[in-house]
Amino acid sequence: MRSLRAAGLTVAVGSAISYLQALGELDVTRPGALYWAGRVTLVHKPEDIATYDQVFSAHYGGTELVDLVVPVPPVEIALAFDEDDDGEAPPPDDEPESNDGPVLEVRYSGVETLRDKDFALCTAAELDEARRLMGRLRLSGALRRSRRWRRAKGSDRARLDLRRTVRYALRASGEPMRRTYVTHGERPRRLVLLLDVSGSMEPYSRAFLRFVHAAVVGRTKVEAFALGTRLTRMTKQLRTHDPDAALARAAGAVVDFSGGTRLGDTIRRFNDEWGVRGMARGAIVVILSDGWDRGDPAELGAEMARLHRVAFRVVWVNPLKASPGYAPLAQGMAAALPHVDEFIEGHSLASLEELAKVIAA
User: Fold this and answer.
1) What is the DSSP string of 211-279?
2) Of 85, 160, 195, 249, which residue is most buried, by most CB within 10 angstroms?
3) pLDDT tens-digit profile of 335-354?
């Protein structure tokens, strides 16, 4: 054991005791018993076996290890590849064929690969799978203080509930033996989603539309609009839980799908008709757009400033942000960026999961 430590092996006291106990049970006159007693008690890592063999051979006077180490015949291991479908058991027809030798089942997850793949590079089948996975997203949303009062358990950051306290005092001959408190309740903030449906957004807009649908049916106080050459409210069309029917109704309502875009004009209409009047006040506003605009950049900057003043948080989701060397040089994006609180990617399923976390923060 001193020789093994000198050679660099870590021999703990417990391992040394186990080695001595093994020697007491074995015939120490046999080199094989000595070798395997130390091999199973003093060696804990496969890379230390060669060092142990050298020290053992030198310590016991050049003992040959050819007869001590039993050769292990090679075993053919069959590989069975299986796709991981969210932990579901494979159908009976997909069971690996019977094999006389051991079978090593190798699993891979197509979902994990799809999470980081750009929507623009996905096939039709992959886009369908991505839309199905988006249906599982749950947007909790940030909370805001409500005007309604609710009972509080303690007096920290709460006010005395005089009415209930006096009522309890009348039951105790006028003595305020029991004091109660109230505090402001909380409710989820409104979420407003503005989706750019122009031609430049076509590789991403249909995937984003599925995300918008998941948000509308997954929580309360959600409004959805389409931004193109005109402003279209899609909330009513996306209320149904059937995703295919909802997307078909939304596509029918948006007559300028895959057309041009005038972000400044459509955001101005949203501010005038909906946002500044109350819908965007204290809300989380998410704009899903690449920032390409045919209108006046100054108008877009001014309308974004108006929106930013009334909203709780403005989030801009740009699928081009994930491109190598991307910089917001487009005039529309450059004009809007100073009035954006969060500027994130939106090119893949993983980036939309990150967007869900940003909305919930």
Assistant:
1) HHHHHHHHSSSEEEEEESSSEEE-TTTT-SS-HHHHHHHHHHH-TTTTB---HHHHHHHHIIIIIIIII
2) 195
3) 999 999 999 998 898 888 88
Q: Are 197 and 205 in contact (CB under 8 A)?
A: yes
pTM above threshold 0.90: no
DSSP state of 306: H
CATH 3.40.50.410 boundaries in the chain: 132-141+189-360
Q: How far is CA 92 from CA 50, 89, 96, 97, in A?
A: 46, 9, 9, 11
- Could you tell me which of 283, 263, 265 has the C-alpha nearest to residue 275? 283
Q: Cβ–Cβ contacts within 10 Å for residue 207, how many? A: 23
Average pLDDT of every residue of the chain: 82
Greatest Cα pair distance, the chain, in angstroms, is: 100
Q: Which CATH number does the domain 132-141+189-360 belong to among 2.60.120.280, 3.30.450.40, 3.40.50.410, 3.40.50.2300?
A: 3.40.50.410
* pLDDT for the residue 89: 47
Q: Which two tokens stand for residue 104?
A: 């090593």
